[in-house]
Amino acid sequence: MELKVIWTDPAIEDLRQIRNYIAEDNPSAAVSFGMELFKSTRHLGSFPQSCRVFQETEDGPVRELLHRGYRIFYQEYGGAIEILHLRHGSRRDPKF
Asked: I need a labelling partner for 96 at 20 to 30 A (CA). Which of 12, 34, 81, 86 fits?
């Protein structure tokens, strides 16, 4: 059974900030890369445990998907996959 992939508000805000940063130099690349990041999470509904565990929490493991220098943090919760945060690899880890 495929799980629904849900983007949380903090993850959407992270994506918006990433796109805005890239758009300062190349607006079309910002749109393209934003879609690329979004699409990279689609397979998680079918393969939720395909990525390494980043951190254990009381709600279960937070996993991270790597995509072209970005880390996409997610968690299986309530029968769905929740995308929690996105971070460039050079940035500080988010707190869960």
From this structure: 34
pLDDT the model gives residue 95: 85
Per-residue pLDDT reduced to its tens digit, 73-83: 999 998 999 99
How many other CB atoms are found less than 10 A from the CB of residue 11?
22
What are the boundaries of each domain within the chain?
4-88
Distance CA(10)–CA(82), nearest Å, equals 11
Task: State pLDDT tens for residues 5-64.
Answer: 999 999 999 999 999 999 999 999 999 999 999 999 999 999 999 999 999 999 999 999
The terminus-to-terminus CA distance of the chain in angstroms comes to 27
- CATH number of the domain at 4-88, please? 3.30.2310.20
Question: Which residue intervals of the chain are DSSP H helices?
Answer: 9-23, 27-39
The residue type at 45: G
